[in-house]
Specification:
heterodimer; A: about 400 residues; alpha/beta; OB fold (Dihydrolipoamide Acetyltransferase, E2P); Rossmann fold; 5-stranded mixed barrel; 13 helices; 13 strands; rod-shaped; B: alpha+beta; disordered N terminus; disordered C terminus
Chain lengths: ~400, ~90
């Protein structure tokens, strides 16, 4: 078979026309990962899209790439829309990209939501665990990249508000594979020190992948177990990360974190001024109170009329005296009673009473001792007989011993 | 780096404010002796000075945690260190 002999150019041109005539190839969407990314000084972007098996060369011209919502970089998964053609000079077919969007964001979003749900259920976001910030921190640990804008913003705003607060930068990677572990370790490390009373961790704005370290579970747990209060400051106002939910306070931006951490000096000075006034007022109040107490005591009536006090004492003395007299008197009365009782029992025994009952006492005349026996008597002896109501003088006629027959 | 000459070195601003509040409330109660109250007042004045110092002094430093060649951690002045790192 005869075949036409073509120039290289003719061949390439033929293939190019084949390609551009295919309607499908003129409007195609390709999923792949960016590699060999180059931003040429002309403003055009050149890169390779690859998957597990193959690769295709791509170009994204300046007038198109300015509409991109992100800056492409190696390793990024994208969906590129464009037309396939042949770059005849190199004999290489390539994808001329019109539009390009991030791929896999849906996956990240699902991962984010799943972790958020899990940690919420485990209680990491609970309000009861939120620690209050110190009124004025003395030393803040700043856990972020030491080369980023975030650390600059935090230092600047802190200094504007207070010049006495210490800052300790704990430098960490804030994106990439090593970032989550470094951030978590730095939080744990800050907790081993005794001079840190507040932690700020975060980074400046970036793509969702760039912020992803702050969506990792290891960082969430480090924030949760931190005894030192943690402020998260990741990206911009609209960026929310897992770290924001676990942190004791979320700041919209790193600058905002410093604002939340350090109160304005003028405001704090007014607070201290208020305390100073309270202190002076309370001391003046105390002294005034004591002075009033003293006045009251001085004006007490006993100090006004000392005589009254004395009178009162005298009256009391009188009262005591009266009680004493009464007590003695009662005792004496009781004794007198006893004596009269004794006297009446004595009376019963009196010989006069016996005489009244019909007995008589015989006393030899001129003597005082009564006669107790006939043996004391002699005939014609004179006896004085004592009766109850008088005496009679008698003489003894007979003396007869008693024979028990007769009582008289 | 001694910030306070007194033994309040370890005292935080917050603790100072709290102590001040308790001094004020015990003076207001008025159940302390005159001598105790004067002591409390004197302490209160010290605390006010301490707080004012904490707010107005410009002694804050910015340091960065670094690791020496022998592997020990130390705090280096951030501004100077940063230039070397760049």
């Amino acid at each position: 078979m005869n075949s036409v002999i073509l120039t290289v150019h003719q061949l390439n041109e033929y293939v190019r026309i084949l390609l551009v005539r295919d309607p499908m190839l003129q409007n195609v969407r390709v999923r792949g990962e960016i590699s060999n990314f180059k931003l040429h000084s002309s403003g055009h972007m050149y890169f390779t899209l690859k998957d597990e098996q193959d690769r295709i060369q791509c170009v994204l011209f300046k007038q198109r790439n300015q509409a991109l919502s992100f800056i492409p970089e190696n390793g990024m998964r994208v969906i590129a829309k464009g037309m396939v053609s042949l770059y005849t000079r190199d004999g290489q077919y390539q994808l001329y990209v019109d539009e390009m969007e991030r791929d896999g964001l849906g996956d990240l979003y699902l991962k984010f939501e799943a972790l958020k749900k899990k940690l919420r259920e485990e209680g990491l976001f609970d309000a009861v665990y939120k620690k209050p910030l110190p009124l004025l921190p003395s030393k803040i640990a700043v856990i972020t990249s030491h080369t980023g804008a975030a650390v600059r913003d935090i230092i600047r705003v802190t200094r504007q508000r207070n010049k006495n607060v210490d800052l300790l930068i704990l430098p960490v990677a804030v994106q990439g594979q090593a970032a989550p572990e470094q951030i978590a370790k730095a939080i744990d490390y800050a907790n081993t020190r005794d001079d840190i009373d507040l932690i700020i961790t975060g980074r400046g704005g970036g793509s969702i992948e760039e912020l992803w370290a702050f969506n990792e579970e290891i960082v969430a747990w480090a924030i949760f177990r931190s005894e030192i209060p943690v402020i998260s400051a990741v990206g911009h106002e609209t960026d929310f990360t897992i770290a924001d939910f676990v942190a004791d306070l979320r700041a919209a931006t790193p600058s905002n974190a410093a604002e939340l951490a350090v109160p304005e000096t003028s405001y704090m000075l007014s607070v201290v001024e208020g305390m100073k006034k309270n202190l002076a007022d309370s001391m003046i109040g105390y002294l005034t109170d004591k002075r009033h107490q003293l006045e009251r005591l001085k004006n007490h009536y006993v100090f006004q009329t000392p005589r009254l006090l004395l009178d009162q004492q005298n009256q009391y003395l009188d009262h005591l005296n009266q009680r004493l007299v009464n007590a003695v008197k009662t005792g004496v009365d009781r004794k007198i009673d006893n004596i009269s009782r004794l006297a009446s029992s004595l009376q019963a025994l009196s010989p006069l009473n016996v005489l009244a009952r019909g007995y008589a006492i015989a006393v030899p005349k001129g003597q005082t001792t009564p006669v107790r026996s006939i043996s004391q008597l002699s005939p014609d002896q004179q006896l004085s007989i004592r009766f109850a109501d008088g005496r009679a003088v008698c003489s003894v006629e007979e003396i007869n011993p008693l024979d028990n027959d007769n009582i008289i | 780096m001694t910030k306070e000459t007194s033994n309040d070195q370890a005292l935080s601003f917050e603790d100072a404010i709290k102590e001040l509040e308790s001094i004020v409330s015990s003076l207001e109660k008025g159940d302390a002796t005159l001598e105790q109250s004067l002591k409390l007042f004197k302490r209160g004045v010290e605390l006010v000075e301490f707080c004012n110092k904490k707010l107005t002094e410009a002694q804050g430093v910015v340091t960065i945690l670094s690791r020496s060649k022998s592997g020990e951690l130390y705090e280096a002045d951030f501004e100077t260190d940063e230039r070397e790192l760049r």
